[in-house]
Design a protein that fits this description.
This protein is α/β, with parallel strands linked by helices. The strands form four sheets. Strands 1, 2, 3, 4, 5, 21, 22 and 23 form an eight-stranded mixed sheet that branches. Strands 7-8-9-10-12-11 form a six-stranded mixed sheet. The chain has a five-stranded parallel sheet with strand order 16-17-18-19-20. Helix 9 crosses helix 10, helix 10 runs parallel beside helix 11 and helix 12 packs across helix 15. It is globular, with a radius of gyration of 24 Å. The two termini are about 30 Å apart.
Length: about 575
């Protein structure tokens, strides 16, 4: 890294502003990791009206202060750019109406008995009446002592009078009790829907309760009355503060419903957003969104932007529904033959039509692809759109969300087509051991191959997929550096990043993902003053301790939006 020794701007005009008495702030007496092209280190940064006016040495920046300048003493702490969320579901989980069934570190459920007990406690706390639906989220069959999915019988005994559905931590499957299946009309005569599967008891067609992918949409929950707008705005404020506490100044809502989009738009109009939200309306709702003239894609206004449209093309590798060119090595629920490769959620023709439609409307496609076979489908769809429309995908920057098991040859195609790899290194920790078992060590070691992507010149970001894994950005950074599993196994040592590479993945590369690299993602003149103050210098501490680094303060456009007490 290069240490900056002089001011990175021409100071003449800036000094006049200072003399005229306009309010400005200097952050100094700390290590400032700018994440600019040269990875320079600065000593001070000058901010005015939410933007960076100068970056440089403490001596030179101090010459620009006046009597009205506020001096922020970093007290030796580290200042980095605000974290840019590569992919999560900002609006995706109501923590007040869903019981947490996660296993450590997401929760404390260790076995099925614990799981049932948590739901019972939740029912009692919420005073849920007979007949009302109960939802749980976050169970992980691989972390339960039983090493299996719960089934309907596990839930039936404790909840004979309530429909109960528990959604897997991967978000791609759920288990329902008999009550929920009955009111939804799901029984032995119900066929598997396109892009989904109903697990059956061996030797029969009777459902076990496990619904995979598109089959989850067969559940017929009654509509719940919407909270008041005031309550929704209050919840939205709390969610923004929650993200800000993790240093996130730009967040993604990774599959925005019409209801969520309406709320976000109302909040933006009321000035109720204080971090930037990149919304991705789900493709099934795209036509409705396009017909509404209030919505405009590609423009950040009042902290809200419709960044593109999201398609979910396959499932979960740990849930064994991601689509691969080679078979899983273990038994796959619902698969009765030798070549169990998972399955896509859409056909190639549907994929082709999706990308063409997005390109024709100048809307960026963001596609969930975990398995390499699904990625092949996406690449074919992009190539087809380029040929059909006589256009280039390069300046459109299509995004492959997760790119979990992308092959090296596919990364070469990413580079050629201008595709951004939005990767997910937390998988190494949370499911690395599971992937070794399900796919073998060679394939597992190449999960989220961030290092190879960098070497090939592919812009790669990193994300948590919250609520699938914690939104903690320092833990995410640690997993990209350590690639250590729950058991301590290293999952692909060759794909480890340096701490600085890991930081770039969640700052400047994240800004590039949203076509905002000229306004955020690094600490440079003219960019937004989006900063995070960290308790430690991630580039010099023992890499094993990166996950323990604390966000002390988050600053959005020069204003503190979170400060650790």
């Amino acid at each position: 890294m290069k240490r900056i020794s002089s001011i990175c701007i021409i100071a003449t005009g800036l000094f006049l502003h200072a003399q005229n008495g306009h309010a400005q702030t200097i952050y100094t007496n700390g290590k400032i990791i700018t994440v600019d092209a040269a990875n320079t280190i600065a000593e001070a940064v000058l901010v005015k009206d939410g933007k960076i006016l100068a970056v440089g040495s403490a001596k030179d920046i101090s010459k620009l202060k006046n009597s009205a300048t506020q001096i922020v003493d970093l007290k030796g702490k580290t200042l980095v750019p605000g974290f840019v969320d590569g992919h999560s579901h900002f609006m995706g989980l109501s923590r007040s109406s869903t019981v947490n069934l996660g296993s450590p570190p997401m929760g404390d459920v260790k076995n099925i008995a614990d799981l049932v007990s948590r739901i019972q406690d939740f029912k009692k706390q919420k005073n849920i009446a007979p007949g009302e639906w109960i939802d749980g989220f976050g169970y992980d069959q691989d972390q339960l002592e039983e090493k299996r999915h719960p089934n309907k019988e596990d839930l039936d005994v404790a909840f004979p009078d309530n429909p109960v559905t528990i959604t897997n931590i991967n978000g791609h499957m759920s288990v329902s009790n008999s009550y929920a299946l009955k009111v939804s009309g799901i029984d032995e005569n119900t066929p598997n829907p396109a892009g989904g599967a109903i697990e059956r008891k061996k030797g029969s067609n009777e459902p076990t309760g496990l619904l995979q992918e598109g089959a989850t949409r067969l559940l017929k929950r009654p509509a719940r009355p919407a909270p008041s707008l005031d309550q929704q705005l209050k919840d939205l404020k709390e969610q923004q503060l929650f993200y800000a506490s993790q240093g996130i100044t730009t967040a993604q809502d990774g599959y925005t419903s019409l209801e969520s989009l309406k709320l976000l738009h109302q909040a933006a109009e009321k000035g109720a957003l204080f971090i930037d939200i990149e919304a991705l309306p789900g493709y099934p709702t795209l036509e409705t969104v396009l017909r509404n003239k209030e919505y405009e894609f590609g423009t950040l206004k009042n902290h809200l932007k419709l960044a593109g449209t999201k398609m979910i093309a396959d499932g979960s590798p740990q849930g064994k529904t991601a689509f691969f060119t080679k078979s899983y090595l273990v038994e796959v629920p619902g698969c009765n033959h030798d070549e169990c490769t998972g399955f896509p959620n859409i056909t190639q023709d549907q994929f082709n039509a999706f990308v063409i439609h997005a390109f024709q409307n100048n809307i960026r496609p963001f596609v969930h692809c975990n398995g390499d076979a699904t990625i092949d489908m996406y690449l074919k769809a992009i190539e087809n759109a380029n040929t059909t429309l006589n256009t280039s995908s390069n300046n459109r920057r299509p995004v492959t969300i997760h790119s979990q098991f992308v092959r090296a040859d596919q990364l070469d195609t990413y580079k050629r087509l201008g595709i951004i790899a939005a990767m997910f290194s937390n998988h190494a920790y949370f499911w690395g051991d599971v992937h070794v078992r399900n796919l073998g060590l060679e394939r597992a070691s190449f999960l989220s191959p961030l290092k190879t992507a960098i070497k090939k010149g592919v812009v790669a970001t990193n994300h948590t997929d919250y609520p699938v894994t914690p939104v903690n950005q320092l833990f995410l950074l640690w997993t990209s550096v350590a690639r250590e599993s729950r058991s301590g196994q290293i999952i692909g040592a060759a794909e480890r990043l340096t701490p600085l590479e890991g930081l770039r993945a969640i700052t400047i590369n994240g800004a590039y993902e949203y076509q905002e690299e000229n306004s955020k993602g690094s600490i440079e003149k003219g960019k937004l003053a989006d900063f995070v103050v960290l308790s430690d210098d991630i580039t010099t501490i023992d890499p094993s301790k990166i996950k323990d680094v604390t966000v002390l303060e988050t600053i959005k456009e020069g204003k503190t939006i979170y400060k650790k007490l």
